[in-house]
Write a structure and sequence with these properties.
Largest sheet: 6 strands, mixed
CATH architecture of the largest domain: 4-Layer Sandwich
Mean pLDDT: 89
Order of helices and strands: HHEHEHEHEEHEHEEEEE
Number of strands: 11
Distance between the termini: 51 Å
Oligomer: single chain
Low-confidence stretches: 1-34
CATH class of the largest domain: Alpha Beta
Radius of gyration: 20 Å
Strand content: 15-25%
Length: 277
């Protein structure tokens, strides 16, 4: 029995090592290069969010009706992401796209670059949030160089979008994540008629700092007419009233499940659709 257990452990270790090695070989196979998790040199566009936010705000200025797609967790599902981008483009009615984070599995620079090349095929501007998988290795540094600050905001038509880093576990709870002060800075903001909160991890999920879940909800409700929240992370499509106060959270699944949301916001409120592609 003891001999069998040792053999089983040895086989398990070898299998784990092989799977880990295979994952990184797969990432490197296209260009036959060495992929290192701490390589932060980027071959591609930089500061994407700021440039695309400028496009969104200019195109949406003065509009009373906007329509956007929300996708998330594209990670290793490159073919599905290609199909998702093609489906959004084919609609012809989307003003911009928000990606809820987890572009990558391992935070490797090449993963960011491959996903960026796919997203750049969108015919409308897009912004990307930081996901927990994107934080691995030097992923946060790559994200900052490629997309910008982890917390950012923009106005599209009647709506203020506040996009937050909520991946508290990736910081060992040593940083203020989510940054309640950043949310509070928008109190009294009247530049838009309503507010949408965007995040990767929702309150009471594994990566969220649930010690501040209720203060997080409180700060959101102090903003100008918060109408809903959207998130990814959990690889399932779920609509829930997390705090029981009527502020709905719309969670979208990963690209492998071939779904995304389309939201329309106008003077009458908002509507949403779950799109299968």
């Amino acid at each position: 029995m003891r001999k069998y257990s040792l053999h089983f452990v040895a086989v398990s270790i070898r299998m784990s090592r092989c799977l880990y090695a295979f994952a990184f070989l797969l990432l490197a196979s296209c260009d036959l290069i060495d992929v290192h998790p701490y390589d932060g040199n980027i071959d591609g566009d930089m500061d994407i969010n700021a440039r695309n936010i400028a496009r969104i705000e200019q195109a949406m200025r003065g509009k009373s009706r906007i329509r956007f797609a929300f996708i998330s967790d594209t990670q290793r599902w490159y073919d599905e992401t290609e199909d998702e981008v093609a489906d959004i483009n084919a609609r012809g009615d989307i003003d911009f796209v928000i990606h809820g984070g987890d572009l990558t599995d391992f935070g490797v620079t090449k993963e960011f670059e491959w996903q960026q090349k796919i997203l750049n095929k969108l015919t409308m501007p897009y912004v990307v949030l930081l996901g927990n998988h994107d934080c691995i290795g030097s992923g946060k540094e790559v994200y900052r160089n490629m997309f910008g600050n982890e917390n950012f905001s923009f106005v599209a038509g009647p709506t203020r979008f506040i996009c937050l880093d909520t991946n508290a576990l990736e910081y060992d709870f040593s940083n203020p994540v989510p940054d309640l002060g950043y949310i509070e800075s928008f109190r009294g903001d009247k530049s838009a008629k309503n507010t949408v909160m965007v995040m990767h991890v929702a309150p009471y999920q594994d990566e969220f700092n649930n010690n501040v879940a209720k203060p997080f909800d409180y700060e959101i409700r102090q903003l100008n007419n918060p109408i809903f929240c959207i998130n990814g992370h959990a690889h399932s499509t779920v609509v829930s009233d997390i705090f029981g106060n009527g502020l709905m959270y719309y969670q979208i699944t990963c690209a492998c499940d071939r779904q995304y949301y389309v939201f329309t916001i106008d003077e009458n409120g908002y509507t949403y659709e779950t799109i299968n592609f």
